[in-house]
Amino acid sequence: MQSLNSNSEIVIIEISQLDYLLIVNIKRKRIEVGLSQVSLTQKMGLSEGFVGKVELFTERAKYSIRHIHLLASALNCTIQEILPVEQPKYDMVKLTLKRTNKINKDGSVSRKKITEVIKIEPREDLKS
Questions:
Q1: Are 27 and 84 in contact, with CB atoms under 8 Å apart?
Q2: How large is the average pLDDT for residues 13-23?
Q3: In which band, very low, low, confident or very high, does the pLDDT at 76 lie, cut at 50, 70 and 90?
Q4: CATH number of the domain to which 118 belongs
Q5: Are 116 and 30 contacting, i.e. CB atoms less than 8 angstroms apart?
Q6: 99 in Cβ contact with 11 (< 8 Å)
Q7: CB proximity list for 59: less than 8 A, separation 6 or greater
Q8: What's the domain range around 81?
Q9: In what order do the strands lie in the sheet with 2-5?
Q10: Which pLDDT score is estimated for 1?
Q11: What is the pLDDT of residues 19-51, one digit of tens each?
Q12: Mean per-residue pLDDT for 115-122?
């Protein structure tokens, strides 16, 4: 973890490219239908904060095969709409994330972080 300043940091993580594409697609669909992370978690009947942890990337939580049906039901769509259209090119990728403290409405700095993917690259030891 590299600190840019007191309010932001750079984090590099490794993740399956398929997991990354799945998470991004589900987040897009969740926003499209107007559900919050909390609402989607509740509709899926999972523990509090699950979807938020998955979308954060820095947590170990990921969607599993079991979750696909729950997601489709909660998002009122087909399983095909849940799965990413893009074919993964790599098994594993490195994500460079910028984590910045959220700014509250009153202008104060929150302890909550906003995570932004700023770079995606194949894992070096798996390049051919």
A1: no
A2: 96
A3: very high
A4: 1.10.260.40
A5: no
A6: yes
A7: 53
A8: 2-126
A9: 2-5, 8-16, 92-103, 109-122
A10: 60
A11: 999 999 999 999 999 999 999 999 999 999 999
A12: 94
Total number of domains in the chain: 1
pLDDT-based confidence at residue 4 (cuts at 50, 70, 90): low
Q: Classify each residue of 9-30 as buried b or exposed e, where b means 16 or more C-beta atoms within 10 Å of its C-beta.
A: beeeeebebbbbbbbebbeebb
Q: Which two tokens stand for residue 28?
A: 């897009």
* N- to C-terminal Cα separation, the chain: 27
What letter represents residue 2's amino acid? Answer: Q
How is residue 26 written in tokens?
């589900």
Residue whose structure tokens are 């990337």: 57
Looking at residue 51, its amino acid is V
Q: Is the pLDDT of residue 71 over 70?
A: yes
CA-CA distances (angstroms) from residue 121 to 15, 29, 43, 51, 117?
Answer: 11, 24, 34, 24, 11
Q: At residue 111, what is the residue type?
A: R
> Residue 20: which of 65, 57, 51, 75 has the closest Cα?
57
Residue 63 main-chain phi, psi, to 5 deg: -75, 145
Q: Where are the beta strands (DSSP E) in the chain?
A: 2-5, 8-16, 92-103, 109-122
